[in-house]
Amino acid sequence: MNAIIESVGERAQQKIAPSSIKLRLMEEADAARWDEFVARCPEATFFHRAGWKRVIEAAFGHRTYFYMAEVDGRIEGVLPLAEIKSRLFGHSLGSLPFCVYGGPAANSREVADALDAEAVRLAQQLGVGHLEYHNRAPRHADWAGKDLYVTFRKEMDPDPEVNLNAIPRKQRAMVRKGIKAGLESVVEQDVDRFFTAYSTSVHRLGTPVFSKKYFRLLKETFGKDCDVLTITKDGKLIASVLNFYFRDEVLPYYGGGMPEAREVAGNDFMYWELMRRRCVEGYRIFDFGRSKKGTGSHDFKKNWGFEPTPLFYEYKLVRATEVPDTNPLNPKYQLMIRTWQKMPIGLANFIGPHIVKNLG
């Protein structure tokens, strides 16, 4: 795979005449070719995969625009986009809502520029407030930005003992606490116990929950590249995490724990157990995902010895005059969060999906 990616990178150095680039929307018959390109393209991520079109449309009802750029019939770039229209949170076009990474993935600057221009044209045609990209590297110095998120990625050793010893002492002690507590792990292919742990956790944080349908769609759509690791003690649910797999990377993406998890270091053990299992299977990168600066999640990941890397969230303002602010740390949302925490969890799980689908 690395040799293929290197050959694609070499081809990216070749100049492409803009007139030779053909842009069109992905059709169902293109999905396999699209994913083959994503697997090879150095700029692409798990969140560029074709399956997100089905997930976003079926789980949230949003309209998607998955653009592909071809040169001589060969895919040279992709740009997945989705439109959100909300009375509460506004009208936007983004790559990609609910995904940590996005933006154009292309083999050349010319192809990326062509995809960019098409996205801006579409944003203007739709009359959105803004066009939003989630980038791992800056692309547009002239677009508005938001210095809010960082991501945490680290290379794993094939030897679990080496990885354990690389964890800072205090955090390593928490992992050992979970081991001594007799916690056990199991890989699951359904999302039922995961959803219980996840929804319990986000309710405790005062955050609207995604629907169980969304997680079922993720598992159905991405198959073997999506699974659930569940932690139990004496058969009782403690914590659970839904994971994505891409090339040699493992991405724990949605997770949560029951109230008992804190007593037995359930979440600490869970992430270690995922790392331990996957490093011996040949996965090289542990992608802990994004976190907002100044949050407990950010500090938790730093405690593992992961260094934060900036994420570049860029906004092309179309009808809007300023960058949107839906950050839960915004003081105006604090009353809503406290109210949500007091709401019965059954009611929160019913209402939550109708709210969160418009947040992106």
Automatic annotation (TrEMBL):
Pfam families: Acetyltransf_6 (PF13480). The lineage of its organism: Bacteria, Pseudomonadati, Pseudomonadota, Betaproteobacteria, Burkholderiales. Residues 169-302 form the BioF2-like acetyltransferase domain. This is FemAB family PEP-CTERM system-associated protein. SUPFAM superfamilies: Acyl-CoA N-acyltransferases (Nat). It comes from the Bacteria.
